[in-house]
Amino acid sequence: LPWYYSPFSVLVDKEVVSSEFEIENLSTNYGFNEQDLIPSGMPRYDYLDKNTTPKRWVLFAPSWRSYLTGSIVSGSSARIGNANNLQKSNYFKNIQDFINNSELNDVLEKYNVELHLKLHPEFYCTYSDVDWISSSNVKLADNKVDITEYAAFMTDFSSFVFDYAPLFRPIMYFVPDYVEFKAGLNRYRELDLPFEKAFGRLATTPEEAVKNIIHVIKNDFKTEEIYKKRMSEFYLDNINCCEGIYNYLIQNDEKKTEK
């Protein structure tokens, strides 16, 4: 979304980045000057405990859809949801088919695994009361979760994945409305980091998503080497990110003072 996140749209003169990919992408496609990017890593990464032993939980966190929400509520950033539109959509139907799949639920029960569905905040308040879960091994997650508790992660194209990838645990992608996505109904149809270069297998049908998650569970939540390599090579040395930003700002403030 260069038209939406360019420096001219977001009105910032500096941006924090966590990878060489971001530096190249923001410089080439978004109109940032490379000297205006702070390669320190995200401050929140300082609090990501990679040594936490995860529970036998899988987090599924699909993003929201602009074509399934209404106008912004006056005086806030929240949007007015439409449960009727949601329940008629392929987005909803395919997610429901996935989480209620009998083969999946048999595997979840056999291997003592829970699948937690985390709705995007744009959807949560409106759709959290929709009766769409039939399995006792599938639960609706709270609006806030501790990602270090999860042994694996599934999303569609949410940027949430970049918070989970530093854990080097299995990641899966499931786009339940792939046709609508490629048609641009959600404002864009391509990703800066395409699926074929991302951190896990892509599914575009409930059946493929079931196959992928069963593979991860039966493989005892081991990350495939090709994806572990991509994760490890993607990020900068994200250690002491807060201190890195602080030092950058101090040094640049001193340069301005000298001038």
Tell me about this structure.
Helix 8 links the parallel strand 8 and strand 9. The chain is built from twelve helices and ten strands. The relative contact order is 0.16. By secondary structure, the protein is α/β, with parallel strands linked by helices. It is 39% helix and 15% strand.
Question: What is the strand and helix layout of this fold?
Answer:
Layout: H1 2-5, H2 7-10, E1 15-16, H3 20-29, E2 37-38, E3 55-60, E4 69-72, E5 79-81, H4 83-88, H5 90-99, H6 102-110, E6 114-117, H7 121-127, E7 138-140, E8 150-155, H8 161-164, E9 171-174, H9 178-182, E10 200-203, H10 206-218, H11 225-234, H12 241-258
Helix pairs in contact: 5-10, 6-10
What is the 3D form?
globular
pLDDT < 50 runs, ≥5 residues: none
Distance between the termini: 36 Å
Structural class determined from secondary elements: alpha/beta
Q: Beta fraction of the residues?
A: 5-15%
Q: What's the total helix number?
A: 12
Biggest β-sheet strands, sense, barrel: 6 strands, parallel
Give a count of the beta strands, DSSP E runs of length 2 or more.
Answer: 10
Can you give the mean pLDDT?
A: 89
Give the H and E element order. Answer: HHEHEEEEHHHEHEEHEHEHHH
